[in-house]
């Protein structure tokens, strides 16, 4: 037999429960909008405001001055050198990242954990320290300095040194994107392909590469962004030779130190535009990866 509702005692309990739930919802909304507001204020102060100030300062003396600043021979040389380093470093890091991720995720071998630790090493070492290491190895007084001098091979204070230093700083990005992705996918599809008679290269291009393409592109975007903006290691090995070994960040530093603020911010605006394009491409890749 159904127990009748005791209106006198049960109704206040139900009402109290509803009030508690309503208060909890209200408190949850307050916390939600407070966190959103804090995030927006933080972004406005530390991202949007500095970004706007870069473009305002770059254009404060007019469009003609802005164009003159970015078409100055030293600025063009810095832009050219930066793009040259990108074209060398990013493909090499892509190859290393794929090879390292393939070895770590598809094979079992002694020293795997050591390899993973070495891949993470640039995250733990200051770029300036990395630059100093290359000076000690390839500089005039370095370990290989005398041999390089005798054979007229220039590493530091030249393009090869900048490329090596940048590669050291950026090589973990592609590998670190691919390793967890390839571990999650496993080796079932590759084993099936090989069991059906496909070669290793054919398996890679037709099975593995399509499965990792979005992770690979994401890693390349991060690697490209860090390559363009790298300062510490490149600053040590470049020698700051105007028109020859100054990348865009180094050129901006020199202009700023010489109180050429408009020119410095003009070149900085180009880097900002590249950063914005990078973010757009990154978000597009994330969106496409989720759709698949």
From TrEMBL:
Q: Where in the cell is it found?
A: Cell inner membrane
GO terms (molecular function) for this protein are: ABC-type sulfate transporter activity
The reply to whether Transmembrane figures as a keyword in the UniProt entry is yes
The ABC transmembrane type-1 domain covers which part of the protein? 79-286
Naming one, the record's GO cellular component terms include: plasma membrane
Q: Which SUPFAM superfamilies match?
A: MetI-like
How does this protein lie in the membrane? Multi-pass membrane protein
> By its UniProt entry, which Gene3D superfamilies does this protein fall under?
MetI-like
Q: Does the keyword DNA-binding apply?
A: no
Region forming the signal peptide: none
- Its protein name is Sulfate transport system permease protein CysW
Taxonomic source organism: Ureibacillus sinduriensis BLB-1 = JCM 15800
The regions listed as transmembrane in this protein's record are: 35-59, 79-103, 115-143, 155-175, 216-241, 261-281
Function, in words: Part of the ABC transporter complex CysAWTP (TC 3.A.1.6.1) involved in sulfate/thiosulfate import. Probably responsible for the translocation of the substrate across the membrane.
Q: What is its main location?
A: membrane
Q: How does it assemble?
A: The complex is composed of two ATP-binding proteins (CysA), two transmembrane proteins (CysT and CysW) and a solute-binding protein (CysP).
Q: Which Pfam families match?
A: BPD_transp_1
Instruction: Name the keywords, alphabetized.
Output: Cell inner membrane, Cell membrane, Membrane, Sulfate transport, Transmembrane, Transmembrane helix, Transport
């Amino acid at each position: 037999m159904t127990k009748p509702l005791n209106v006198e005692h049960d109704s206040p309990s139900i009402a109290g429960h509803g009030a508690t739930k309503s208060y909890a919802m209200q408190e949850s909304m307050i916390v939600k909008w407070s966190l959103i507001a804090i995030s927006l204020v933080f972004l406005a102060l530390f991202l949007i405001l500095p970004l706007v100030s870069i473009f305002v300062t770059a254009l404060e003396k007019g469009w003609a001055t802005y164009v003159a600043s970015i078409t100055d021979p030293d600025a063009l040389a810095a832009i050219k050198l930066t793009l040259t380093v990108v074209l060398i470093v990013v493909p090499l890091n892509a190859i290393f990242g794929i090879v390292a991720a393939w070895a770590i995720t598809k094979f079992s071998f002694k020293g795997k954990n050591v390899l993973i630790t070495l891949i993470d090493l640039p995250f733990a070492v200051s770029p300036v320290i990395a630059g100093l290491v290359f000076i000690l190895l390839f500089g005039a007084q370095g370990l290989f300095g005398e041999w390089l001098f005798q054979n007229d091979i220039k590493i530091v204070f030249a393009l090869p040194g900048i490329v090596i230093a940048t590669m050291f700083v950026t090589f973990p990005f592609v590998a670190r994107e691919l390793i967890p992705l390839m571990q999650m996918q496993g080796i079932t599809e590759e084993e099936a392909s090989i069991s059906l008679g496909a070669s290793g290269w054919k398996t890679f291009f037709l099975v593995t590469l399509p499965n990792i393409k979005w992770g690979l592109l994401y890693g390349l975007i991060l690697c490209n962004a860090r390559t363009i903006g790298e300062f510490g290691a490149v600053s040590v090995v470049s020698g700051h030779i105007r028109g020859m070994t100054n990348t865009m960040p180094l050129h901006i530093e020199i202009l700023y130190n010489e109180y050429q603020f408009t020119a410095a911010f003009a070149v900085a605006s180009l880097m900002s535009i590249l950063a914005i394009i990078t973010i757009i491409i990154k978000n597009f890749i994330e969106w496409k990866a989720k759709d698949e």
